[in-house]
């Protein structure tokens, strides 16, 4: 199926090959090549895998042909994500024909969902490793080297990889992701994640702060705290008996240095607390941006999705965010054509988008995933043309909302963290505002570099970008 959403926004980053920022690959005995698909959590996991492999004498390469070990970190969220991976695996078959010693491993959510079946279905796969089993990779590689098929898809109740220091892959040296928890206990009926990533568990807060401090000391200026549902972060410091909530954790990271920006993703409308919003308002370096997936604007559909909030509850949250964190950017995930969705339900989605005035959204049509609650309980009964038409309407509305939101920013001044050259020109910088909007502006010759903050006045905009000048 053609997924319009993925044309509009690249939430599902596809198949990016990584190599460490400053790697001395010659220092290693062997080379690995890794491609990651899906959500930010997967990209973050690949950095843990890279660290484990470095310790085993494997250096990263960007060149598939040079690799002794080729890894795909995969996503199962929609059928299309899995199809993309399967296609990529058949491309690897050709390379393996001329390089029989090369090992191919599948990591991540597809590994977890399909388990040993993957070895049978995709005959050339040698290693299958689920998201909680990356520590066993060295042993699995050894097994595979002797010609056996190697699988570990055990899920864990306590694995957080807290002590593993991720190797930053393809880094801009300015922004980085820190995984603060794993798994998910919400049983959204459409979602495969609870099955592929297991039970929710929070990582040691002190190790998170340490990782952020370490990044800051290396010149990084922004960290994004990552979890499927960050608001349910909960950790007890056994030494002091202190409990650390997400709001507290954010504060601990914000206090490292005022020049270190803090972002987070993803929030669940049912769990985001007033304490979180007040903490955001209190610290200038906690960015004013919340990704708050709505999924649908219809209370009836939300109930079928098991989201555990109503349309009114969600709208009240949006209102509260705008009151406590004025000017806060808000984005959403939206699913078109969930089981039994009527035109009226669809109109409710459009109207909640207008109400929330999202700056941006990730938009999808419903894709039934085997084993989920929805697959077991409800019929995927909305015809594909209707799903597509509704999605198209959602996309068009979001395009208008994004443009309106950007137009409201023309004339305003934003503090921007420079991330690097703009896509189009080395004569321009790009960076983000606190509200997570991309701003592009001409370089002026005054020794600025990525990682610096500048005040930029917005003069013009497109639907996707603000254009301005340093003041
Ligand atoms: N079909 C379509 N979209 C889905 N998402 C999750 N599961 C599905 C599915 N089965 C979307 C949700 C979620 C985002 C990460 O992906 O909007 O928030
Ligand atoms: Fe990430 Fe979900 Fe895809 Fe797994 S299924 S990679 S958790 S988006």
Provide a concise account of the structure shown.
The protein has 471 residues and is α/β, with parallel strands linked by helices.
What do these coordinates show?
This protein has 3 domains: 19-152, Rossmann fold (3-Layer(aba) Sandwich), CATH 3.40.50.12160; 175-409, tm_1862 like domain (pyruvate-formate lyase- activating enzyme, Alpha-Beta Horseshoe); 413-470, OB fold (Dihydrolipoamide Acetyltransferase, E2P) (Beta Barrel). It has 15 helices and 22 strands. The protein is globular and about 65 Å long. The strands form 6 sheets. Strands 1, 2, 3, 4, 5, 6 and 7 form a 7-stranded mixed β-sheet that branches. Strands 18-19-20-22-21 form a 5-stranded mixed β-barrel. Helix content is 34%, strand content 24%. With 471 residues, the chain is of the alpha/beta class. It has helices spanning 4-8, 40-55, 79-98, 109-114, 117-121, 137-145, 193-197, 205-217, 246-254, 274-282, 299-304, 311-324, 343-356, 373-377, 384-409; strands at 13-18, 30-38, 58-60, 69-74, 103-108, 127-129, 150-152, 175-179, 181-182, 201-202, 222-226, 234-237, 242-245, 261-265, 289-291, 329-336, 360-365, 413-421, 428-432, 438-442, 453-461, 466-470. Mean pLDDT is 93; it is low at 1-12. The N and C termini lie far apart (47 Å). Bound molecules: 5'-deoxyadenosine and iron/sulfur cluster. The site of 5'-deoxyadenosine has 12 residues, from strand 16. Residues 38-39, 41-42, 75-77, 108-109, 192-193, 196-197 line the site of iron/sulfur cluster. Its main location: cytoplasm. GO terms for molecular function: 4 iron, 4 sulfur cluster binding; metal ion binding; tRNA-2-methylthio-N(6)-dimethylallyladenosine(37) synthase activity. Keywords: 4Fe-4S, Cytoplasm, Iron, Iron-sulfur, Metal-binding, S-adenosyl-L-methionine, Transferase, tRNA processing. Residues 30-146 form the MTTase N-terminal domain.
